[in-house]
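QA checklist item 7 of 12: single-chain prediction sanity check.
[x] sequence parsed
[x] length recorded as 82
[x] structure emitted
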Amino acid sequence: MDGSSKVTPAPRPRGGGRPSTVAPYALDVAQWLREDPDLPGVEILRRVRLAGYRGGKSALYELVRRLRVGRPVDRSRRSLQK
């Protein structure tokens, strides 16, 4: 071989990144959603901030979205008429 063909190493597994700032509040959020499945995300954000959450809205809303998965969709709220 002439040495021009190099073997690239296998990709290393990636770490988990930064620790989640919203994870400590997941149990509270899940409880609130069990008590009131239609609780708005902005109210959940208000509650976790009162409990000490200092993270961003996007991370919290993603948690709320994941916790609401599997919940039946209320189609009566969507208007199909124009």
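[x] summary fact logged: The CA atoms of residues 16 and 65 lie 21 Å apart.
[ ] second reviewer sign-off
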